Amino acid sequence: MTKPLVVITGASSGIGEATARTLSAQGHPLLLLARRIDRLTALGLPNTMCRQVDVTDGPAFTAAIEEAEVQYGPVDCLVNNAGVMLLGLAHEQDPAEWKTMFDVNVMGLLNGIHAVLAKMKARQGGTVINISSIAGRKTFPNHAAYCGTKFAVHAITENIREEVADDNVRFITIAPGAVETELLSHTTSDDIKAGYEEWKDGMGGVIAPQDIANAISYAYQQPQHLCIREIVLAATRQQP
């Protein structure tokens, strides 16, 4: 392959799908991971391996990466995009939803990092791009546990960036505002979903997954000696 391997989690829709299409068009071989394998294969991208993997399953995550590396060479970039957003008030929300978010948004991200980082350090190169949120920088109503997971993503990314800077490995945080994806559909409260949709309409619409994919591509395509540590982007009319 003329370009190195990129791994994208949560690639079956939204930001992950847009990023897969963008980086594939740039000539990168891909390993796409998601629970909905049919959505991955339907993308029909060249030089792409699709695997049904739950990111909370560390051994399965690592096995898929090792399989892809046999075919396409070492992972040069991991895009940790898989995530869930389950909104609710702290005194009402089912704690099982909190656990789901921390398992996917935090442990899933750490599983991916663990699967690629030692080899990147040994090669003295590589990039990990973690998809966080503006909710990793400030709080929002009904977002307590979700914000907790995204504050964790910000902290983990910056902490490891400092640890591996001397190894020439880049860690990058992408923090979108509201994006038109399936993320809101995970929330079980109809009232909260309706309020969120009203908020989106009030700003004249939100940004598209392709906007985030463009930011990911921009950060990744910089020369290895340049690390864009964080990109925060949202609709111009989004105030918080």
UniProtKB/TrEMBL annotation:
Pfam families: adh_short (PF00106). The keyword Oxidoreductase applies. One of its GO terms (molecular function) is oxidoreductase activity, acting on the CH-OH group of donors, NAD or NADP as acceptor. SUPFAM superfamilies: NAD(P)-binding Rossmann-fold domains. Gene3D superfamilies: NAD(P)-binding Rossmann-like Domain. InterPro entries: NAD(P)-bd_dom_sf, Sc_DH/Rdtase_CS, SDR_fam. Keywords: Oxidoreductase. The keyword ATP-binding does not apply. PANTHER family: DEHYDROGENASE/REDUCTASE SDR FAMILY MEMBER 11, DEHYDROGENASE_REDUCTASE SDR FAMILY MEMBER 11. Belongs to the short-chain dehydrogenases/reductases (SDR) family. This is Oxidoreductase. It comes from Photobacterium gaetbulicola.
